[in-house]
Amino acid sequence: MSRVPDVDYSATSLRPDWSSVPADLQEALAVALGTQIDSVDRPVSSGFTGGFAARAQLADGREVFIKAAHGTTHAYEAYQREAEVVPRLPATVRVPAIVATARTSDWFAVVSEWVSGRMPGTPWTEVDFELVTATCEGMAEALRPSPLRELESFGELVGTDVAVPAQILAGERQMPVGLQPWLPQVLQELAELAAAGPEVLVGDTAMHSDLRPDNLLIDESGTCWTVDWNWLTLGPRWVDWAGLLPIAQHQGIDTLAAIKRSPLTADVPPEHLDAFVAVIAAYMLKNTDAPPPPGCTPALRQHQRFYAWTYLDWLAVRRGW
User: Fold this and answer.
1) Is the peptide bond before 145 cis (omega within 30 degrees of 0)?
2) Distance (Å, whole) CA 265 – CA 49
């Protein structure tokens, strides 16, 4: 049986180096930090945007993580949203603290504390999976009810994307290439599951909503940190964890047994879990064969195909496809 190529989430971005950050923004950062920036490492290679992101050493001895983006890029708004959200999260949610922000007329930068850690899921191991599971369980407890007001619902975030399978069925959208040969035979059921998503994906928990391996860090003490909190939404408390399950299953973790063990999902109707996974599969089927949007790297489409495949495989096991 063929398999979709795995994605190396440690090498998905093409970021500019520090010299591309305008001098006036660099100066504004030094003022905001209260000290000079002594040196800046090479940009990190994870993520899918073209925003600058790298560790920096400050003159006062601190190490920080600087992200900066021009106003024409997606990262510009994402970095601002992160700077708004992170200080409002409960202390029990392990997130690198925001140290400072700076802006010019057309650039924005956010600085957080530096956390030295490794990415889980490369591939998933039982130990890392259990640690991340415990982290998601703790986050769900801390973020329910939501400490942040005026969040859009997860259903609003996915919006019209739930209709993608139905659009393919109706001939309004092309079937993406490079996916399972049996997909056309189950497209009707996938469309029905995805259409049910907005109705069942309701709740009072604040969620990360984009929890991927490259948004997780495990430090030397075994603490799991979450990063990139710019897609915060409101929904069921199990969604963040459930979004990690198809890839973990793909890499040999028995997630079907884990669902029964975890307090996040033990009492969740199977159809609700399947509807959520169908929603994400539908989202990933959208524009899979199109060029990446401005400011994003080609690896974004590789990620989409990988997620679509693994999510469909997960549904196939559960639904006997």
Assistant:
1) yes
2) 32
For the CA atoms of 166, 167, 170, 171, what is the dihedral angle to 10 degrees?
-140
Q: Is the dihedral of CA 158, 161, 166, 169 positive or negative?
A: negative
Mean pLDDT per segment of 10 residues, for the chain of length 321 residues? 77 92 98 98 92 97 97 92 96 97 97 97 94 98 93 89 96 94 97 94 95 95 97 96 97 96 96 97 92 84 94 97 95
Give domain 18-115's CATH number out of 3.30.420.130, 3.20.20.70, 2.60.40.730, 3.30.200.20. Answer: 3.30.200.20
CATH 3.30.200.20 residue ranges for the chain: 18-115
Omega within 30 of 0 (cis) for the link into 5: no
Residue 32: partners with Cβ closer than 8 Å, 6 or more residues away: 100, 101, 102, 111
Report the predicted TM-score, pTM, of the whole model to 2 decimal places. 0.94
Distance CA 120, CA 43 (A): 20
Query: Which residues are 57's β-sheet partners?
Result: 39, 63
Give CA 98 to chain center in angstroms.
19
Task: Return all residues near 27 (Cβ < 8 A) that are at least 6 apart.
Answer: none
